[in-house]
Structure formats: structure tokens, C-alpha cells
Design a protein that fits this description.
Strand order of the largest sheet: 3-2-4-1-5
Shape: elongated
Largest sheet: 5 strands, parallel
Distance between the termini: 62 Å
Order of helices and strands: EHEHEHEHEHEHEHEEHEH
Number of helices: 9
Helix content: 25-40%
């Protein structure tokens, strides 16, 4: 029976690639890649010669029908993104849903994703958390902030480096300057950095040191803010 494999790839350090992921990528009939140029370097490193097709947010609506047809014909196909686990703020959901609707087996391998290590090493409560991904650019942004201001669970967000300082300033407006936060940058890479403190403290850090690379923000919920104030009094 044919199957769609969801295969995580390293977010930075190539040593995080699993033996199983390498085997699956060698055995399938086709690899769907978010960017074939980026994935080509990964496949070359691990001596994987499987043919690739491009599958990204700009063409996934058009390519799904053909992919489903190939799966129904008996092919095994793997989906990878540029880094991390597909469908987590990356293409993958639409194809997975189409496979489920067509009763095609889907198997997701465990592996790298940026928000889990960021959450765990933040020092903030991680028994309950909410993953927000990227916030809306304009439309709906204020509405989202107002809703999150009442969130008691730890929040995880992805933020582009050129928007980080502005976003942290907006956090002060909606969450307060004393809300505990951790900004993780370049996780698993040579220049990994985890900056912890209050929103104001972390904002000051990145105002003096402009951020670069991939960024994950872990923000304490409303309860964490109250606990933080008690500990500092």
C-alpha cells in the first residue's frame, strides 16, 4: 500500500538528521521539497539520490491532485520542508488532509522542530502551552494581541529577525514590560543564543544587538507575569 511520509529535517545542525529519515528518503519514489535548491544540499550531504519535486505554499493547491493520483497508483512519497517538521508553519497540512480524505496512509516521523527546544530551554512553564506561529502582519493583528493578552498558558511564536524589535515593543503595549520572555535564536547552530528576562530587558538587548537568523519567542502567560512580579518583590 502506498504511503505519504512526513519527514522532519534538521533546523540547523545536520547531526540531528535521523537514520530512519535518511532511509525513508532513499527508499521512496519521490521527495516533495519546499525549495529543491535548499533540500538538494541536504540530500547531497547524505548521498540521497531520490528525485525531487517542488511543493510550497505558492503551488500546493495546484499540485495536490497530481500527488494524490501518484499515491493512488502505488508510489510512496516523502514530504520535507526547508527545515524542521513539515506543516508546522510550513506547507503540509493541505496534502495531509487530502491523503486522509482519500484514505491514503500518512506516517509522520518524529524529529526536529524549532519550537520544542525553545520552549523547554526557556525556563517558562511548559506543562500547558499554545503555539501561535507567525502573527498576522496587519489585518487581525490587534485582535490577536487582545486575545493573547488574556492567555494564561505559555505562548510560542515565530518572528522574523527584522520584525523582532518592533514586535517586542508591541508586547510591552499589550502584555506589559514585566512579562517573562525568552527569545531563542539560531537553535542547534554554531551561534545559538537564548535571551531570557522581562520583555523590556530583552527588547533592550536586541535594540543594542540587532538580531539575525531564525527566531522563536516564548512568552509567559498572564499567570507567569503575576508569579514573576511576586519573585522580584
Amino acid at each position: 500500500m502506498s504511503k505519504l511520509y512526513i519527514v522532519p529535517t534538521p533546523i540547523g545542525n545536520l547531526e540531528d538528521m535521523t537514520f530512519r529519515a535518511i532511509r525513508i528518503l532513499k527508499e521512496v519514489d519521490l521527495i516533495l521539497a519546499e525549495d529543491t535548491r535548499t533540500s538538494g544540499k541536504l540530500l547531497k550531504h547524505f548521498e540521497i539520490g531520490t528525485h525531487m519535486h517542488s511543493h510550497h505554499m505558492h503551488n500546493e493547491h495546484k499540485t495536490i491532485e497530481n500527488i494524490i493520483s501518484r499515491l493512488k497508483s502505488g508510489e510512496n512519497i516523502a514530504l520535507i520542508s526547508d527545515a524542521g517538521t513539515p506543516a508546522i508553519s510550513d506547507p503540509g497540512f493541505l496534502l495531509t488532509r487530502a491523503c486522509v480524505e482519500n484514505k491514503i496512509e500518512v506516517e509522520c516521523l518524529p524529529g526536529a522542530t524549532a519550537f520544542v527546544p525553545a520552549l523547554v530551554n526557556s525556563g517558562l512553564p511548559n506543562d500547558k502551552f499554545v503555539f501561535e506561529g507567525f502573527l498576522p502582519d496587519k489585518k487581525g493583528k490587534q485582535t490577536r494581541y487582545l486575545a493573547l493578552a488574556e492567555e494564561t498558558r505559555t505562548m510560542i511564536l515565530y518572528v522574523s529577525p527584522h520584525k523582532l524589535v518592533k514586535t517586542l515593543a508591541e508586547f510591552i503595549t499589550y502584555f506589559g514590560a514585566d512579562r517573562p520572555i525568552c527569545v531563542s535564536r539560531e537553535l542547534s547552530k554554531l551561534h545559538e543564543e537564548n535571551v531570557r528576562g522581562t520583555v523590556r530587558e530583552v527588547l533592550t538587548h536586541f535594540e543594542n544587538k540587532p538580531p539575525k537568523g531564525e527566531i522563536v519567542v516564548v512568552l509567559g502567560g498572564k499567570i507567569a507575569e503575576k508569579q514573576n512580579k511576586k519573585e522580584t518583590e
